[in-house]
Structures are given as C-alpha cells and as structure tokens.
Amino acid sequence: MSSSANQRELFSSRIGFILAAAGAAVGLGNIWGFPTQAASNGGGAFLLVYLIMILIVAFPMLVVEMAIGRYGQANPIDSMRKLANNPLQAKLSAGVGWIGLAVPCAVLAFYSVVGGWLICFLLGAITDLIGLQAVSEWFKGFSVERNLFGTLSFYILTILIVRGGVKQGIEKWSTRLMPALFILFGVLFIYIMMQTGATEGLKHYLIPDFDKVWDRKLILAAMGQGFFSLTIGGCSMLIYGSYLSKKENLPQVAMQVTLVDTAVAFIAGLVVMPAMFVAMQKGVQIYSESGALLSSDTLVFTVLPLMFDSLGFLGQIFAVVFFLLLTIAALTSSISMLECPVALVSERFDTPRGKTSWALGGAIALLSVVIVFNFGQLFGLVAMIATQYLQPIAALLFCVFGGWVWNRNSKINELKQGNPEFSEGWFGKVWPAYVKFVCPALVATVIWASFG
To answer: Do 19 and 215 touch, CB atoms closer than 8 A?
Structure first.
C-alpha cells in the first residue's frame, strides 16, 4: 500500500479524535504537575491564571499545530516541508520538523521511567491488598531491577497500542481509557471529600487570593504549565491533526480538546489538593516552616500513598484506583509520543506498522534503560533538556513557521475546510496575526523564564 494522502488512515469519529488528542495532552503533567504547581503557587490564584493562559497562549497554538498536521497530511517533517514556498524554506522547515520529532523521543525516554514507577506502585497496591507483603515492598522500593521491570512493562503496553494503528490502536484505546479516567477521578473525589480536612484543601484550591494573581513567578509558572499541559511543541498534536478529517471544524475540535484536557487538570486538583490537607490532618508534613511545598517532585508518590495507608482497607483499594488512573493517563500520552517516529518511518519507507512500532519503541527503550542504570546523573538532565529547552524551542519554531512561512491564504483555506465561515468570525480575523506576533512573544517569554 502506498502512503499517499488519500489512503491515509483517519480517525473514524470526532469523539475518537477529541479523546485521543486530549489523551495525548493528558499525562502526568495534568495529574502530577498541575496540582503540585497549584499547591506551590497559592492554589486558587494559580488556577485562575492558568485558565486564562490556556485560552490566550495554548489554544491558539494548538490550532496552529493541528492545522499544520492536517494541511500536510503526513509525519511532522513532511508536513512542515509543505509549508515552504522555496527550496531554502523547505530545508529549514524540514529541520524544524526534525527538532519537533526529537521532542516526543526525548520525552518518552524519561517519561517511560515514570510510567514504569506507576505500574510498579499499581502492582504494589494490588499485592498489598492480597497480603503479599514482601512482593509489595519490592514493587514500592526503588531498586534498579524494579525500575527496569516497570519501564519495560510500560514500553510493551505502549507499543502494543501503537502497532494497532490509528483506528484499531490509538482511537480504540483512547475511547476506553479516557472515560475510565473521568469515572475513577469522580469516585476518588467523592471518597476524599468524606475525609476530615478535605474541605480546607478545596477552599485553598478554589478560592483565589487576588493579591497573588499578579505575581510574576506565578504567571510564568501558569503559562509554562498551560503550555505543557496541551503538549504544545511536542509534535503529538501535529501528528494527530494529520489524521483528522478535512470535514471537521478545526478550531472547534481544538477547543473541545482544550476543554477536556483542562477539565482533567482541574479535576486532578480537586482530588490532590484536598488529599494533601487530609494527609496533613493525619500528621503527614507537606509544607515546610516557610510555607514551601516539601518533596514537590514526588508529591504523588509520597503524600498520597501515606494518606491511603492511614485509611486502612478502603485506602488500599483506593490506592489501586489512583495508580491505575495515573497509569492510564501516562499511557494515553506515551502512545502519541511513539506515534510520531512510527508515522515517519512507516510513511517514508512503507514498512509494516507492527514491526516499525517494535523497532522504534525498542530503540527508545534502550535509551530509557541507560537512564535507569544511571538514574542520578541522567534522569533530571534528560527531563530538563526535553521539557525546558527542546519542547518550548520546537513550539516557538512551529509558531514562527506557521505564522510567517506558511502563506496566509493557504492557512485560512485550510481552516475554512469544515468551517466555511472561518474568516468572517472574530477568531478568524484575529488568529492569523495573533499567531504571527503575540504567540511567539509569549513562548519566547516562557523560554526566557526557564533560562532565568
């Protein structure tokens, strides 16, 4: 089968696309990162600024990334190349595609290690329930063998979904996993709200302290979080956009993806913030004397299990639910990361998807194995290079090329497909210039802040 655009596999339904794209965006950033950031930056004030940033920074850029993908109908490199008007631009655009493609590969290398921890914590919670204490201790310990087991298990699950293709793999599993995520969150929220101290946490999360809203550090943290929350610059949205039917109203679909993704982050906060206050009631120390958050990186792995432990048998059941939830969130993201290189190789060389998925997944897994064996030196470094430098720079380049290189008429025509009145509405009038001038400035600010 040739890989021409007319035979390109598409998502079979709009809801399938929205859940898959939102799943790509919903990862540990929403469930692990967002509540931690909210807890560190004044709760309600952070939530308010975050919601504003999602609308004014992340959403317009999401439309750009999806539009480039749908216009190109190909992997990130070939899609970027199609934006060019001359040979030099084509070379530069392809280069941007390669930088973009490096993001999901680099992120997957360290993300799978964390995904592996989640699988181990999940298995640890299950063996706890059955009473296999020694096995449970091994799963909850931090040994190299345990991390290796978890990481490789996580890769196998990711590869098995990706090799199924768009409809049979990604769409099929996203439409099952995402609703499961919401149901598990709902159950967990009700359970946590029944505990002492939970309402205090809820107030801290939902009622903003308006004095903090203008804090520069908080605004930059919210902008960065909004940005990562929708995986802007991570290539996933570009590749999923290339599988979106031309009949769909792209800005509307992008808004629905944004809403689902933001809802997950918001609900994660609803669960984690009250849980922190419940844990504090039980004597777990969460904030230091100065009011700073202790163990912010491991909040999800330390504070919540302590809270579950203090709640007896029911707590053990909910520990299983919670880590199942996190594993699902991690998987819906990892499948989109692996899809980026798989799409490139299977389109360029017409290779069978199954073999390509195993070969490329295996290659990135080797990198993760190196990280597991040199955890202290490599984990933080790879995570920092991927998320603080590579991803924002890729996002900035996508924005600059989408705004400046891609011809304005061809861009507007792409968005008119599935939405003929696009250029008559206010969004259609503002968006082309906004993406050209405002978005790059805002992204540059995020990059500048991360170097600062």
So the answer is: no
